[in-house]
């Protein structure tokens, strides 16, 4: 989608469009987003933080006052928007994980979302699912009940990708599913916000190990029909969710928004090396020339600057090259895509900033019942994950799921 703001900084424009898109389900207001963005200079990470934090504090304070005065609907709506703005404030700070502004804004984002969750009817329930061998480590998320819970219903598990949170999932899929009669369990897996902030759990490519305990949790809930559990993953989740489905037979359908066959292609395309050579050099004990190439990309490309800074944080890597070496493992090659047996929906955006062409590659490798759903600029849905066109995209996605799980 053509940049309306930040024309020379595609990453700032995409993140602004992403916040605009959250307005579809109450996560932002157009004027608040526009007024905030107009105060920001392209490429200024500190200025981005300061502008969004100021908006978040103002909106959050108003929501808290409305709640204290006995206005629950106004309070709920304000808490939802404040949660988005706090999350957005700390988005570009992860190249310095010790920056105290990260924890402050992230914690406030979660606090405001949970304040809003308590005001829904029925209330959205925070869940904590034990995970892994680290004492006390858990996956955090939210369970949404559709209807009165009197009979088992189909359920959608959903998670974000490289940088989204379980709280943001509310605006880009969870509430739309509840409106259509699905229970929802949204969660952060390893590497995603609550896991990395609270426990230091980095990403892992074998995502079935993140999904299995969530399925185990759902199996304890009598309101869930375990024969009709779908998994939806967004952004990098468009590779992670299909990976889980390849090895987890309890998944009845999988949705990739948008589909990703080889995530590292988005990074490797920046460099004049073939994939095999780049992989060999990224994994070498030392490669000064490649380190210089990565440094140049980070200094000249806004998307590379953000991706490598954030990537080191969520992958537990101590250098850009170590991040690249880790990221090369995020793929569905070597017969993984072909293992998927359940019906699979692959979404595609015509102007994807990160994974252009990847949905088609994934779709070509699938041998299961499959559908490719393409979104265009004419529809205003051509951006990565269709930000800015959530109601259009989610209508088509859930219509497909209705047909699959309610034949």
What does this structure look like?
The protein has helices spanning 10-22, 30-37, 45-68, 72-89, 100-117, 166-179, 193-199, 208-219, 237-247, 265-268, 275-282, 288-300, 302-315, 320-327, 336-339, 358-365, 390-405, and strands at residues 125-130, 138-144, 153-159, 183-187, 224-234, 253-257, 344-349, 370-375. The protein has 407 residues and is of the alpha/beta class. The protein folds into three domains: 1-119, de novo design (two linked rop proteins); 123-263 and 330-407, Rossmann fold, CATH 3.40.50; 265-327, no CATH class. Strand 7, helix 16 (358-365) and strand 8 form a beta-alpha-beta unit.
Question: What's the short version?
Answer:
By secondary structure, the protein is α/β, with parallel strands linked by helices. It is 49% helix and 13% strand. The protein folds into three domains: 119 residues, acylaminoacyl peptidase (de novo design (two linked rop proteins), Up-down Bundle), CATH 1.20.1440; 219 residues, Rossmann fold, CATH 3.40.50; 63 residues, no CATH class.
- CATH fold title of the largest domain: Rossmann fold
**Known CATH architecture of the largest domain:** 3-Layer(aba) Sandwich
Largest sheet: 8 strands, mixed
Mean pLDDT: 94
Secondary-structure-derived class: alpha/beta
Question: Which percent range describes the beta-strand content?
Answer: 5-15%
End-to-end CA span: 35 Å
What is the H/E string? Answer: HHHHHEEEHEHHEHEHHHHHHEHEH
At the fourth CATH level, what is the homologous superfamily of the largest domain? Alpha/Beta hydrolase fold, catalytic domain
Number of strands: 8
Shape: globular
CATH class group of the largest domain: Alpha Beta
Order of strands across the main sheet: 1-2-4-3-5-6-7-8
